[in-house]
Every structure is written in C-alpha cells, then in structure tokens.
Amino acid sequence: MLTKVIEQANIDHFAKWLDRADKMVIVSHVGPDGDAIGSSLGLWHFLNSQDKTANVIVPNAFPDFLRWMPGSKDILQYDRYKEFADKLIAEADVICCLDFNALSRIDAMAEAVKNSPARKILIDHHLHPEDFCKIVISHPEISSTSELVFRLICRMGYFSDITKQGAECIYTGMMTDTGGFTYNSNNREIYFIISELLSKGIDKDAIYRKVFNTYSESRLRLMGHVLTQMKVYPEYHAAMISLTEKEQKQFNYIRGDSEGFVNIPLSIKNVIFSCFLREDTEKPMIKISLRSVGKFPCNQLAAEFFGGGGHLNASGGEFYGTMEEAQKVFEQALEKYKPLLTAKG
Ligand code: 5GP
Ligand code: MN
Question: Where is the signal peptide (predicted)?
C-alpha cells in the first residue's frame, strides 16, 4: 500500500478544479527530459480519459529517444508554434506546471503562463518552488514528477482510468529520473507503483531498451571521444568531461546525443562527483551538468560557482565564458569543496 504523500487539501482542491475545467494545458521545462515528457503525457492521457480538452506544451524540442512515447506526436513545441500555444495558454481553464519550480525554467513561455488568468497547479519535486501557482504539490523527497502524477491520479480515485499508454509514460519518467532505478530509488513504494503499472500491461524491459539502447553510431563514437579526453582528479574524488562546439560538429552532434554522459565518470572507483561542460550552440555559454553520489551537495556548488541549482545529487548551471575558463572555475570549485569531497562516509 502507498502512504499519503500529497496533502488531502491539495487532492480535494485539484479534484474540484478538474470537475469544472474543460480546457487544460500541461507545461514542462526547457530541454524536456524523460520525467518532463513522462509526467506531462501521463497526466495528458488521464485528462483525455476524463474527456478534457488537454494540450501538452514544452518550450523546445525533446530528445529522439522519447519520441516513441504514446502521445508524443501531439506535444506542442513553443518555439515552433508560439501563436497557437499562446492562445491555448491564455484560454485555458487550468494550467498544470510539471517538473519545474520556477517560471524561468520554461524560458520564453514564462510570460504567457504568468499572464494567463487560468488556475495554476504545480506538480514537482525540485527544491524551493517559486510562488506562481495556487495549488502547490511540491515533494523533493519523491524521485520523479511522474510518480507524483501517479499518486495524484490514484488519490483522486481514478487508478482504473489509467490506460496502458498512460502507464508507459509514467513508468518512463520514473525510470529516467532514477537512472533506471539506480539512484534516488530506495523508497520501497516505487516498486509498489511499478507493480501497479505492470498490471496495466506495460513492458518495462522494452521501455528500458527503447530509452537507453537506441543510440546512434555517432553518439557512441562521441561518447568514446569524450571519455578519452576525460580528466580525473583522484585527490578530489572527482572527474570532468567536456564537449566543445567544434567536437559537436565533428561527431554530427544532435540534441540529446550527450544525454547521460555526465553519469559515466561516476562508474570509476572512488569518484563521487562528476562534471560535464558542453558548449551551447544557441547561447554564448557553457552548460554545466553536475552529478554526485552520497551526500556531496552538487546543487550548492552549482549555485555558488555557476549561478544554477538543482538537486543534491543532480544539478546544473551556466557559465558565460570560454571552455578553458569554465574548467578553471570548476577546478577552483573543487579546491573549495575539497573537505566535503574527501570526507569519509
Ligand atoms: P541536467 O544536468 O540534467 O541538465 O540538470 C540536472 C538538474 O539540475 C535539473 O533537473 C535541474 O534541477 C538542475 N539544473 C540544470 N541546469 C540548471 C540551471 O541552469 N539552473 C538551475 N537552477 N538548475 C539547473
Ligand atoms: Mn524530474
């Protein structure tokens, strides 16, 4: 059985909105990942089952390895269909904000969402949610927004309305935000939920293959290249990998090709902190991705050195400057955080 994570008042409040709403819009963060798309489509399938007019809108493109997901073809990309999306957002009865905690995380969509008279609900698991939604379902202790969507639907009494397609989306989000249940995945209720999703007929093994084993040859070669260049800092229990724009061209890089790279250095014995620096092709900046295992707070380091944030074990930020400068700043950060990086236990 599941414990009641979401407060009853929030369940009742949203159930009331659901009763009255017809036009519903679901939005998620820029650079949508498996959990952003999984939770959005999981909720979308449910809203369809309740005969709502529902639309999922994301700021920009999502990776190819999520395109198999049922409903993904109906996702609206804001950077392509701004006018239509603006209309949907302005005319919505309810806007569901999924898997982000601040309006800045939806980029160019922020204004439209902020100015819409729609009722707004936040369903998210990032720390410190900003105050822009009437209902705030924020649970950083839960490993994915998709799990929260499952819990919300069930608590409203609609488990039986979850379809196989909806279950596939929810499962995908739970799986990707835990690295295939290898981190943030010790809560035993996760496995109860998986069992419930399996009862809907999902093939979890096939989903794993569709998401993680559909690499292009160029992605795998890029991975090999990046790992060859990897820098390991044994005295800091850390490692760094990087990818310049030039290297991206050399390996026919397309969006999503470096997804997950940042986790690889953590498979080295004694490395507990990993950094991935990628030259952005749209903005003049270096995108920083950080991952840690155990107690090392990479969100604190991201905030202090790269104007970013995120979770304890997965965070990111941005750096405006050259790759060499970004690497220097990273090395300064290592020095500053050396006591925490080398702490026992
Ligand atoms: P990723 O490395 O997958 O891009 O990001 C991991 C996590 O770090 C995200 O889920 C998000 O919480 C956080 N994050 C990434 N980039 C930024 C950023 O620029 N600013 C903030 N505040 N958080 C970020
Ligand atoms: Mn998430």
Answer: none
Q: What does the radius of gyration of the chain's CA atoms come to, in whole angstroms?
A: 20
Residue 178 C-alpha to ligand 2 middle, in angstroms? 9
Token duo for residue 30: 């820029």
CATH class of 8-212: alpha beta
Indicate left, alpha or beta for 216 from its phi (over 0: left) and psi (-120 to 50: alpha): beta
Which structure tokens are listed for 308?
């970013």
Q: pLDDT tens, 66-121? A: 999 999 999 999 999 999 999 999 999 999 999 999 999 999 999 999 999 999 99
Q: Is 126 in the pocket of ligand 1 (CB under 6 A)?
A: yes
Look up the CATH architecture of domain 217-341.
Answer: Roll (3.10)
Distance CA 333, CA 329 (A): 6
Domain ranges of the chain: 8-212, 217-341
**Predicted complex ipTM:** 0.94
Torsion of CA 8, 167, 212, 182, to 10 degrees: 40
